[in-house]
Amino acid sequence: MLTDVAVVVAEPVPAFELGVTSEIFGLTPAGSGLPRYEYAVCAQRCEPMRTSSGFTIVPSHDLRRLDSADLIIVTGASPMVEPPGEQLTAALHRAAGRGATVAALCTGAFPVAATGLLDGRRATTHWSSAAELARRFPAVTVDPDPIYIVDGPVATSAGSSAAIDLCLHLIRREFGAAVANRVAREMVVPPHRSGGQAQFARTPVPATHAGPGLAELLDWAVEHLAEDLSVEALAGRAAMSARTFIRHFTAATGTTPASWVRDQRIRRAEELLERDGATVASVARRSGFGSPDTLRRHFGGPRGVTPETHREAFRPIP
Question: What is the C-alpha separation between 180 and 46, in angstroms, rounded?
């Protein structure tokens, strides 16, 4: 049973993530009928620590407290903290070995990965740090899209609010959906969110080494996404054969013309869905997808949600 939770912090302590875990596991309302936990905030030393928001906290326990925990949560930090010491590394390995869960919130994936516990496992972190996590720890299969991943005894989550999603999932896994839903209701948050990080991350346009001619063509295409942007049409505007254009375009942008156009159309659809009340059919037409079915097919793959769900999530507040 999940009855004992320990949170490991390092300076600068992420105030939001610590607040989330304290709210969920450390402040069960009296008489609520919800599970109650032994809860502790742990660090290498029990001394004042600066948080990311400027105030200080004092951990209640040192790392010896981890040996009794059913769930050990490792918070991240920005900038990311130094690799974990031998004591924390050993404690996390012991915990995983005896069946406890080790959960990393946001960039907490970095110190957990440094212990080797994520080797050969899937993991996620904040989308902006995913490439760095993959670079530093090639033995880890980093997936930048999921809001959280549980792989064996180790769990990882995306940034900030994804800590709520992971904690609710761990409660749901242990106590069932009804209990997790009640906890979510107490916090006034959805018990489960659809989609992944892609719907929140803005994917940058690939760096281009194009000459002025191709750069002008790309600028024109972005302003005319509802028109014919086939390879043949673009090649004709560039005064090249289709084969030469594809080779030149791919060398300059790092992607194919079809992929580039699709990504630009998805971004335009996002903008239209977020800023006005146009119908999905209108958004599909104005972004160049033509029909709602085509928009849904292309939008759902990379974003993980339907256009309707994306619009609802980012609907302007009246």
Answer: 32
